[in-house]
Amino acid sequence: MIKLYNSLAREKQIFEPIDPHHVRVYACGPTVYNYAHIGNARMAVVFDLLVRVLREIYPEVTYASNITDIDDKIMEAACETGDKIENITRKYEKIYNDDMASLGVLAPDVQPRATDHIPEMIRLMERLIARGHAYAAEGHVLFHVPSDPSYGALSGRSRDEQIAGARVDVAPFKKDPADFVLWKPSTGDQPGWDSPWGYGRPGWHIECSAMAEKHLGLPFDIHGGGADLKFPHHENEIAQSCCAHGHETRPEEFARYWVHNGFLTVEGEKMSKSLGNFKTAHELLERHKGEVLRLCLLSAHYRQPLDWSEALLEQNRKALDKFYDPLLRSEKFATVHVPEKDWKIYPPVFDALCDDLNTPLAISKMHELSKQSWRTDLSDDEIYDTKALLLGTGKLLGILQAKNKEDWFEARVTRSGEISRDDIDALVAKRQEAKKAKDFATADAIRKDLDEKGIVIEDTPQGPQWKWK
Fold first, then answer.
1. Torsions phi, psi of 174, nearest 5?
2. How confident is the model at residue 391 (pLDDT cuts 50, 70, 90)?
């Protein structure tokens, strides 16, 4: 059983799938005209984890997350660079997918592109016009918001808030200020397609309605994305899809559960290019391991704000070092091979994730499991079982994927640029020589120097061992 906070119902509910044998999930993906920022990555990581948890419970899960490859921002990028739109979108689609893979995000089962679904969008608009919920005007097709009695069910916004929040364009052909564009005309030098209303291109909101219906069917189980999409994008999706199928008073006939992840700030401020604190996943991956970024993104509850900082990165880097220590550097664990078929999930972690993806609690339980691995009285069977739990739980969380200590610890040192592994080993050996010569002042100075660099030396019967704090 899994509980989720349903934004549509405004409460945490027990998740009851439409078909217990096949759960269907949709999350709004990126608009591919530039590098994805770390807030976009938070959505991808959160829904990746949700799908992983669902797959532990249900026999089949289909996860769809779209690519928006037609948009005014993409057209602006084409004008600025002089490159073709298709070249821009394919380039940044690949970069996005590669970057998300580096964050441990599994590829969606379906990743539809908007430009491949123009016929489906046109048919959806035709249904809306036939049912009196949309109208054509001066080469545009617009959704008539007053025609939908349930409009606002997701966001809870008043009419004045709807108009202000949507940042609507004032246009003389609109029947109502809140009406939003489903189709707009394109000039000869703009991308477009033939339609019953002339040469043009779709508005943003209609894309997801058409793609979700085609690939998941209606209604489906879970829809989500960032909290910034709740209004107007997700509100408009509900209106389009429900009104096109005669479900004007039943917004749940599009998607039963709505899941939204919280906003991301940087050092306490809103992320923006003008403030110089805009963080892209691509840039961060050049300086940090993907697992560190992933654990940072999961460190706060998904519905809560997450403040990005260097301190957050360091905290989660240290946490991963502690998780990896028994697996890769502990003599009693590192030599024990546990085939993947024997990996297991630590029940307290899974229970926490089943309670509305409570990742802070899940990570704290992971720390408890890691501490157990340092017990000196573990039998061989207990060592095997503990490693199986660490590996299986790590796989569920999308971490602990490094296969040997060099994959993790060497990269950690090289990336910091502070001190190499060879230098650490040399200092540890020098300290050992100083101790043998009873030069304790030198030995203590070396220990202090390493401590300041975040390295702890442990004197064991087998000799000194070092690890990151």
1. -80, 140
2. very high
